[in-house]
Amino acid sequence: MIMSRHFLVSGAVGLLACLACPAADELPSADSAWEPADQMESAWRRGLADRSSFAPIIDFYRRLAGEGNSLAERRLGLCYRDGRGVKQDMGAALKHLSAAASRGDKIALVAAFEVACDEAKLGAAPPDFMRPLVDPLRALSASGHDRATALYAEILLYGRCGLDADPARAVAMVQPLGFRAEPRALCLLGTCCCEGLGVEQLPERGIALLEAAAQLGYPPALGCMAERYLNGKGVPKDVREGFALARRGALREDPTAMYWMGYCLLMGEGVKKDMDNAVVWLRRAAERGQPDAMTLLGTAYTHGGLPQTPPLPVEGFRWMLRAADRGDADALYMAGQWLEVGLGTDADPAEAVSRYRQAANLAKSSALVALGRCTLLGIGTPSDPAKARVLFNQAVQAKQADGAAWLAYMTVEGIGTRKDLAAGLKMYAQAAQAGSAEAHYRLSCHYRQGQGVPRNEQLALKHMEEAATDLLPKAMMDLALMYEQGVGTKPSRGLAQNWMKLAAEHGEPRAVRRMEQLAEDQRPR
User: 21-165 has which CATH code?
Assistant: First the structure.
């Protein structure tokens, strides 16, 4: 078993960086008598001592990098990576670090692959221009460089940068590094043990390895263990420990830890609720490309969930699309929903179907239902009941109750099968019991109209409330109308307006039109 090690980190390096720094006004210039390397070292030290002094140095680095200076190229890449003197930009960081690495800079080579591997954890594939650098990384690994070995093993594990995936070989490469307590190797081994990649699935051992990496302060391990403690995933649920780990990782700039830090502050998990700081951390995580943070921000912007901020659907869709473009299944599904109804963007049913299909390919079961519904009704794609039935059955196999509700609908309406109202209603009842909002909605309609069942407005209201509470937009609108008209209850203008507003925020077309008309009627003449 790998024992965790505790290291005392000296502050000598930071102190030396502050010594012998030129005065703030002694910026290097093209006319200086110093050699470029001396100028850059002076500038770099001054920046380490005072981060704000990096800004005027960036142009100096750019000029030298343009002249082929690999040290300037590397330093420029590190500035973009860390947000020193420029806005943090991992794409630009990779570009400059890779350029330096291609000129033989081994420090830049390792830094480039560290950025690429960390970005890949967030769903961003390494750019093609890094493929020629794989052989130099392999050679550096073969020379005994531990960090290079851990990085090469990571791209080998997942088959990135043109390599064929070989989990067993990747595990064999990093096992010796684990015994030397190399943090990335420990984290990689822990992930492999938890998921059974290249090794027998041993969750307890995997978590122990991840814990060891977290104790060494490795940021991705801190974010990973924060999630596990917050959700009780493989460890006893402990929200205080989860928040503490998220905070440590967030302060070390790990995007996943930043997301969990924001989530804890938002939900009051392990810490007192603090909406303002929650938004700060969620936005930082989202700006670093963390898909969950982008999805949460997208939803919050769209539905007005941010403090002192009205609903901003266009901004919400922008964040959701960024998460979707990272290949996040939830974001792809939600982007599809918003594209279908035109929420925060122009309606584009064909593009919505494309997003649903991508999400379904990533095993998002609710996307199977949406894709089946569009295929059945001819939304954004030609109507094909047989293909829709296949998709609904796949959703049912994935434990998605709404799939069963749509199969019931096809039975009730006799689409692609013999019409059987009694059998369809029985299927609706079973799907509703399993938690299907669509089934509750359909049952409400049947009870309200007395179709196949005795008319019962109270039961109609009950089922519509169940569907609306599950945020089914058409159910929200119909519930608003039931409260407005007093169906199954006393009329309530306040409840009607609340549900109609919520339906409009979710893009329900009838609700959007009603709210627009209401706003027009209230406008001063």
Answer: 1.25.40
